[in-house]
């Protein structure tokens, strides 16, 4: 399965991926309108300290702890992709606590949110990868 | 100082409606122009520090930014222009020599733009490069004047060492130090992929890049930085740098603060010591002296590599080239007055040297007249901007061209001309690790390959249009050129007829 991989050597800490993610999942078609005066809640986050930075989003693990821990069956694996069904989520946040990467977070809309590789937001391709100026994140088979 | 005489040259215009306060511009500007006003969640700019490099403009995700020239004006004066006045203010404040980077930006004539290319109509067929063979390969080096045969009449190989180029384009000398590690890696890998050569410049060859040696030209300049046996052996050719188009007649000076880590190791000078390239080579005061260095280098590399002598285009360039063609050198590289630089005194960059088009035409003509044209190949550089410039250069008599500025532009350079400040926002002319990493060589090398491949297609289209199917048939073919808006003298030097003739 194609996954998003991080080349931290090339990450500039520009945070563009976060903004492209927030836009991709906003359901709007104009980035300025979607994000102006908005505090964003992207599904990808930059970790940074000193001159090192890298992007963290869902790894789509082979053995996902979040799915194992989910008490309501809201998280599932489909063709390697880990998906969230917000209608089933009871906001217990077990997954938030069990993800070793911190890649799941509470959603503003209730329930939780996580990266679903832009498969459900109409983008088709990961917007963060397309928007990264330095190929610090790539979407590929490994 | 209480009076600030210098008014900022640029204004940062932010479309407030589009700005989403993502702070990308703030994080990407090494000149610290942008900052977030937290209280109002609004971005603000200190435009006095802006050098107009467009890093922020290119990365702003909502296209909220543009940089415009200030319309703050001095009283209009065609003689005392704003720039001239500001330069005087600067020097009155600092007492220093003005420094600048990249090539001469002054509105002096660009002869490429006054030359037009021929095409076939009716009486001679044009060639379709997509359907018919078309050769863009060329060889640089001495060409034999006669065939040699052994006793039984079999042909002997009497060819001197040559450089084989798949396209007549090479990346010109830019040292590690003046440009970054990642820029060098991009150039080196692109040269390999394209079947051409890049040039180390005078800063030595980084240990990691010896692997690209077969596509590397190693330079020996007046400072002799990083020159030793293995370095000479590593390259496909050796270039003796006598001069540079951006600053003919003067040397170079990389301050000790930049001689750190890898740069110091590669240049083979102690950390913190100034890297001074003397204006002349102190062992070369004549063509005979030059000949000695040419042959020392050949001797050191067992006569296996062509030796290039690079000079700046100056007033008596034809006579100098004639001397070089007799010095044993295999290739002459001539750098015109628009050639780039990482730092040069502004007055020298803008006022010394001559246009490469005129220099090339007169050198080619002189070498032909003296019957020594085949002693050397001629490579020119100094603002070759596109494939049409290349076709014109070949028709004027060049064997190949060097591109430096165009290559850097392909890597992201926006010609802000502040390389000397060492804070290149595009990761090219800087050694600051956090800026250098902005140029990912995986991206950079591909952009270079695409640029030169695109030019190759265009060169083939133009050659096909003229009914010419090889670079060899285009070289020195001045009948394929016509001048427009040039006077008799210019046409005479260029050796071309006026359009309509
Ligand atoms: S967009 Fe790319 S370079 Fe910028 S922070 Fe994200 S991963 Fe790093
Ligand atoms: S793939 Fe899409 S949803 Fe996932 S982090 Fe990237 S932009 Fe966000
Ligand atoms: S990069 Fe553009 S959108 Fe982001 S803060 Fe700067 S001007 Fe605003
Ligand atoms: S110096 Fe470059 S990055 Fe900084 S504000 Fe000016 S154009 Fe933008």
Explain this structure.
- The complex is a heterodimer of chains A (142) and B (501).
- Chain A has helices at residues 16-24, 31-35, 65-69, 94-98, 127-131; strands spanning 2-6, 45-49, 52-56, 75-78, 81-84, 105-106, 112-113, 137-141.
- Chain A is α+β, with helices and mostly antiparallel strands and 142 residues long.
- In chain A, the strands form four sheets. Chain A has a two-stranded antiparallel sheet with strand order 1-8. A two-stranded antiparallel ribbon of chain A has the order 2-3.
- Chain B has two domains: 10-96, 2-Layer Sandwich (Alpha-Beta Plaits), CATH 3.30.70.20; 138-146 and 165-498, Alpha-Beta Barrel (TIM Barrel).
- Chain B has 16 helices and 23 strands.
- Classes of the chains: A alpha+beta (142), B alpha/beta (501).
- Chain A binds chain B through residues 9-10, 12-16, 19-20, 23, 31-32, 35-38, 51, 131, 133-136, and chain B through 17-24, 27-28, 41, 59, 61-62, 64, 433-434, 437-438, 440, 442-443.
- Bound molecules: iron/sulfur cluster (SF4) (4 copies).
- Residues 20-21, 24-25, 43-44, 57, 115, 117-118, 126-128 of chain A line the site of one iron/sulfur cluster.
| Strand portion of chain A | 15-25%
CATH superfamily of the largest domain in chain B: Aldolase class I
| CATH top level class name of the largest domain in chain B | Alpha Beta
- Assembly annotation: heterodimer
Uncertain parts of chain B: none
Strands of the widest sheet of chain A, in order across it, are: 1-8
Number of strands of chain A: 8
Q: What's the architecture of the largest domain in chain A in CATH terms?
A: 2-Layer Sandwich
Rg of chain A over CA atoms, rounded to whole Å, is: 15 Å
């Amino acid at each position: 399965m194609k996954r998003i991989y991080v080349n931290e050597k090339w990450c500039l800490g520009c945070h563009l991926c976060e903004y492209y993610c927030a836009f991709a999942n906003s359901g709007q078609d104009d980035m300025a309108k979607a994000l102006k005066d908005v505090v964003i809640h992207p599904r990808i986050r930059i970790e940074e300290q000193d001159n090192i930075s890298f992007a963290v989003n869902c790894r789509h693990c082979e053995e996902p702890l979040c799915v194992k821990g989910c008490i309501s069956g809201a998280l599932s694996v489909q063709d390697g992709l880990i998906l969230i069904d917000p209608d089933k989520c009871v906001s217990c946040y077990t997954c938030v606590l069990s993800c070793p990467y911190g890649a799941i977070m509470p959603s503003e809309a209730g329930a939780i949110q996580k990266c679903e590789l832009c498969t459900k937001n109409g983008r088709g391709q990961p917007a963060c990868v397309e928007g990264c100026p330095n190929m610090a994140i790539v979407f590929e088979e490994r | 100082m209480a009076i600030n005489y210098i008014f900022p040259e640029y204004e940062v215009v932010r479309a407030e409606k589009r700005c989403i306060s993502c702070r990308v511009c703030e994080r990407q500007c090494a000149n610290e122009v942008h900052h977030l006003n937290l209280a109002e969640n609004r971005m603000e700019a200190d435009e006095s520090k802006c050098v107009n490099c467009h890093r922020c403009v290119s990365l702003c995700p909502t296209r909220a930014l543009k940089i415009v020239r200030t319309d703050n004006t001095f009283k209009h004066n065609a003689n005392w222009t704003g720039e001239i006045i500001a330069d005087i203010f600067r020097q009155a404040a600092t007492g220093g020599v003005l420094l600048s980077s990249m090539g001469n930006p002054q509105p002096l004539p660009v002869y490429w733009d006054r030359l037009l290319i021929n095409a076939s109509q009716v009486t001679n067929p044009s060639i379709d490069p997509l359907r018919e063979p078309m050769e863009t390969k060329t060889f640089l080096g001495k060409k034999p004047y006669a065939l040699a045969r052994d006793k039984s009449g079999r042909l002997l190989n009497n060819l001197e060492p040559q450089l084989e180029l798949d396209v007549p384009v090479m990346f010109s000398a830019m040292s590690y130090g003046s440009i970054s590690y990642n820029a060098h890696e991009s150039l080196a890998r692109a040269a390999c992929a394209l079947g051409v050569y890049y040039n180390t410049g005078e800063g030595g060859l980084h240990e990691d890049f010896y692997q690209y040696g077969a596509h590397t030209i190693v330079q020996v300049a007046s400072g002799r930085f990083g020159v030793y046996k293995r370095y000479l052996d590593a390259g496909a050719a050796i270039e003796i740098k006598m001069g540079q188009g951006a600053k003919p007649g003067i040397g170079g000076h990389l301050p000790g603060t930049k001689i750190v880590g890898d740069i110091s190791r590669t240049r083979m000078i102690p950390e913190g010591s100034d890297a001074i390239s003397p204006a002349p080579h102190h062992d070369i005061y004549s063509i005979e002296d030059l000949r000695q260095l040419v042959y020392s280098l050949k001797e050191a590399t067992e006569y296996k590599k062509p030796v290039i002598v690079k000079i700046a285009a100056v007033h008596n360039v034809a006579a100098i080239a004639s001397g070089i063609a007799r010095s044993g050198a295999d290739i002459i590289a001539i750098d015109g007055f628009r050639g780039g630089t990482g730092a040069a005194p502004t007055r020298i960059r803008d006022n010394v040297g001559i246009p490469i088009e005129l220099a090339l035409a007169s050198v080619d003509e002189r070498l032909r007249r003296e019957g020594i044209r085949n002693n050397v190949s001629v490579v020119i550089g100094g603002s070759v901007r596109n494939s049409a410039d290349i076709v014109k250069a070949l028709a004027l008599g060049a064997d190949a061209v060097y591109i430096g500025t165009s290559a850097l532009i392909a890597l992201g350079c926006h010609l802000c001309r502040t390389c000397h400040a060492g804070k290149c926002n595009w990761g090219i002319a800087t050694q600051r690790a956090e800026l250098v990493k902005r140029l990912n060589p995986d991206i950079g090398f591909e952009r270079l390959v695409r640029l030169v491949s695109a030019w190759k297609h265009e060169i083939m289209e133009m050659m096909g249009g003229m009914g010419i199917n090889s670079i060899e048939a285009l070289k020195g073919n001045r009948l394929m050129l016509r001048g427009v808006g040039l006077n008799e003298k210019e046409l005479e030097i260029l050796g071309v007829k006026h359009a309509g003739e």
